[in-house]
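User: I'm preparing a small set of examples for a lab meeting where we compare how different chains pack in three dimensions. I only have the primary sequence for this one, and I'd like the structure in token form so I can line it up with the others. Please keep the answer compact; I'll paste it straight into my notes.
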Amino acid sequence: MALQAGIVGLPNVGKSTLFNAVSNSAKAQASNYRFCTIEPNVGQVDVPDERLAKLAELVQPQRILPTTIEFVDIAGLVKGASKGEGLGNKFLANIREVDAIVHVIRCFEDENILRDEGPINPIADKDIIDTELQLKDLDSVEKKIQRVEKLMKTGDAKVKNSMVVLQQCLKHLSDGKNIRALKLEGEDREAIADIFLLTDKPVLYVANVDEAALLTGNKYSDALVKAATEEGAQVIVMNNSIEAQITELEAQEDKELFFAEYGLTEPGLNRLIRSAYKLLDLATYFTAGVQEVRAWTIHKGWKAPQAASVIHTDFEKGFIKAEVISYNDYIQFKSEAACRENGKLRIEGKEYIVHDGDVMHFRFNV
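Assistant: Understood. Below is the structure token output for the 366-residue chain.
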């Protein structure tokens, strides 16, 4: 399964530069004029996981395959987008398709970079995006309320509950709040599932700071962190231009020198991906054999047949059992055979909930 995260924000805040920093399969044009990105650029990035490398050292496979994340560079949003201003309709349509939002906010001053929104103000910039998404969601909720009203006379309990949830969403949005703050679950979530509300998507903020604030942050990023914390969201402080430069370096030695120069211990990309995983409650399991060692992404809480389906749907349909070794046991005993001999290979059935780091082999019949 591939996580798709949409990179959004006002024009000229560093969205396409961030895309270039994280994408290893596509390069987005990054220019200093509004609506540089019109059609969304899509690129894939390998998910860095040191566990994969350590397993590969033990198994010595023919190939190593990390799992990947898709990033989508979406056109810059402007005030009035919910009414079609700028590329608003296209932006809002594109953002509906992604699983999570990576909201880039400018947290640096530079008179050479165009800005129509006045003095640097990350909270005001955040509010512009939030407001436009809320207005679009309001429209979606109101239209569904009209449809549900026609069904109310049936007396169906599910229809009544849908109306209660929709009215709750309507008030929430009217008060300038995002739907994700409601934390809807079960039948309540089903009531809005078909209208794909934009403010229901999980969000991660990227504070794009200048070089001087790369390690410490600044007053702008601090203000953003405070606002994000109040809504239960996380902020990654990065210099998008420096991250883009790092990805241009091919030799690991050159990258290490770059890290040392700027006082970095790893690319900001790694922090961004880990945060995205946490945001969507994802986990990784591994398959390990002489042909390949590979990482697979699943949602936490998935049972073994569901986890098998990301390899091939037939694995889920014909699931018989799973042979499971915990990652720590594999590293300790250094091979599947040794784990088996020491009683560390377990046979699990359909109800087994896969743990992050499990090394698995599936038995199936179709």
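A couple of notes for your slides: Confidence is low (pLDDT under 50) at residues 25-38. The two ends are 22 Å apart (CA to CA).

User: Perfect, thanks.
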